Known about the structure:
Elements: H1 3-9, H2 21-26, H3 32-41, H4 43-51, E1 62-65, E2 73-76, E3 79-80, H5 82-91, E4 99-104, E5 110-114, H6 115-131, E6 139-143, H7 148-159, E7 163-166, H8 173-183, E8 187-191, E9 194-196, E10 199-201, H9 203-213, E11 219-223, E12 237-239, H10 240-243, H11 247-250, E13 260-261, E14 265-271, E15 279-284, H12 285-299, E16 307-310, H13 317-329, E17 333-337, H14 348-356, E18 360-363, H15 365-372, H16 377-380, E19 389-393, H17 399-409, E20 416-419, E21 452-455, E22 467-472, E23 482-483, H18 487-495, E24 502-510, E25 516-521, E26 525-528, E27 531-534, H19 535-542, E28 548-558, E29 562-571, H20 579-592, E30 601-604, H21 618-625
Parallel strand pairs: 4-17, 6-7, 6-8, 7-14, 8-11, 11-12, 16-17, 16-18, 18-19, 19-20, 29-30
Antiparallel strand pairs: 1-2, 3-13, 4-5, 9-10, 14-15, 15-23, 21-22, 22-24, 24-25, 26-27, 28-29
This protein binds adenosine-5'-monophosphate-propyl ester.
Amino acid sequence: MSQESAAKQNPAVDEIYHPSPDIVAQANVPDPERLREEAARDIQAYWAKRAEELEWYAPWEKVLDDSNKPFYQWFTGGKTNIVLNALDRHVRTWRRNKLALIWESEKGDLRTLSYHALNREVCKFANVLKSMGVVKGDRVTIYMPRIPETVIAMLATAKIGAIHSVVYGGFSVEALHGRIEDSESKVIITADGGNMNGKKVELKKIVDEALQRSGAPEHVVVVRHLGLDVMMEQGRDYWYHELMSLPLTRNPMRCETEVMDAEDPLFILYTSGTTGKPKAILHTHGGYSVGVHATLKDVFDLKEEDRWWCTADPGWITGHSYIVYAPLLAGATSFMYEGAPTYPYPDRWWSMIEKYGITIFYSTPTAIRGLMRFGTSWPNRHDLSSLRLLGSVGEPINPEAWRWFHKNIGKEKCPIMDTWWQTETGAFMIAPMPAMPLKPGSGTKPLPGITAEVVNEEGKPVKDGDEGFLVLKNPWPAMMRTIFKDPDRYVQTYWSKFKDFYFVGDSARRDKDGYFWIIGRVDDVIKVSGYRLGTAELESAFITHHAVAEAAVIGLPHEVKGVAIHAYLILKAGHEPGEELAEDIRKHIAHEMGPIAKPEKIEFVKTLPKTRSGKIMRRVLKARAQGMSEGDISTLEE
Ligand code: PRX
């Protein structure tokens, strides 16, 4: 009997996929257990060793400073800049001629940038930012389509010591406005528009509308990508290509990389939490570089000759860490694609794997489930034999999607690295390495130097196999340092539920082999197609519609998206429920938040279940919608 059918008939029998001897023989980490044990013996010595794989302007004095918990500091006294390792050190070697980036637009245009060429563009744009008065510590908002200039803008900002805040190009007016305002950005970098699924997304128009609501930044830089006719406000808005050809900026030799403290901020990235506005997660130059570099090398076995493709968007942490920084730190060749996986046909991704000889392909469960629906004839018409490893991120991957991916894309020879991590963790935390046995749906074990546990309400470990809260027990270099402008919220959100443990916000269980299985969020974060949205931000967007008095939003299971948004709305007096109004509200949400926030279902209701203190009980709505018992509703008022 095959492993698959044995597991189906008897769920107690694990479905295990062992790596082939050649995968083990050539892996960067041939013996993962030994590395894990070595790291556990002295975690700080382990991370110091990993930090030595990178260049530093000056060495650190202390690996970990935990004198002000939970504001941990790593490699204190060390001097670096992520750009020193992502570009500067490569252009001094033969890698200057190696491709850093291969990019294809949705229409099929190709652009390539060697390390030399990428460095030149970054230096020129860094000079542009300097000429606009951007200095160390200033914030720069980047709101872009998936094009090479996004990467250039991020690196240029980092190079001069400024802090980038990338806002996902699929977000819209209100989401962008809130993030620009909170970050107090001096400059916004955007494009006239981007291609997505055959449509033109007019980004500059969205920026203009968002800026009508905000205290305006000093400058807006606009990349001409589509050739759209856009409004350019004199004295505020500038074309990227014009700035890049000014004599002042043309000479890249004039741009030195700013020497940064290991603990100086590199970027902020807004993400959703349980309550309130999205929070700006802050990461630093030193520890973040060490964390993303070590994890990509170990988990995806990255080699000089690989062609790496991470399908995420630079607007999310996966793009920051594993499209932009980690591959460049490793001197790797990355592929980036602008558009939708199904444009013009559902084999677009598979055709590009063949065309560019991709060797490692890192994607999401929701994309795999979506492409599965079109059947195997689409991947089967392409030669996917260049692939050697696959990856998954963002939400639990259901075994059915895992098996489809493994069989039809990996042709049963490519292990799947299911990586569990978060915006806050900066880098992979629980993930396999290619030389480990895999179980579909499990991220396997905490990586070397990481200690995780599943605990109960009291913070005590639960029995193997039981569900509980996932916690991380020791600090790690790529961890977030704080919430920008709100250190109290950092302590409250992550370090208060359990003293000394980092509270993840996910439930999980660990099996008898020490493998972790992530179950889902225990808070009000909704992961729609792997995108992280907060109920609070969504609900406030609903009530900006003129007809909506109150809103409650929950996530319910969905076959492709994993979770889909269901909205319960109380209308203002004088408005009648109906499909036309529901459609108008959907459009409003897409305009304010972005298309990913559009609700799957809108239900108009007269009341919402609330606690005596007026808090909406989403748990009750969820239970009702799924026909389950409502649990303890003693605090329910209505
Ligand atoms: O719930 C977990 C889920 O995504 C959350 C983090 O979301 P975000 O900060 O947007 O980062 C996503 C990309 C790193 C986690 O708390 N999650 C992420 N990866 C996995 C996952 N759930 C299960 N399996 C994964 N591999």
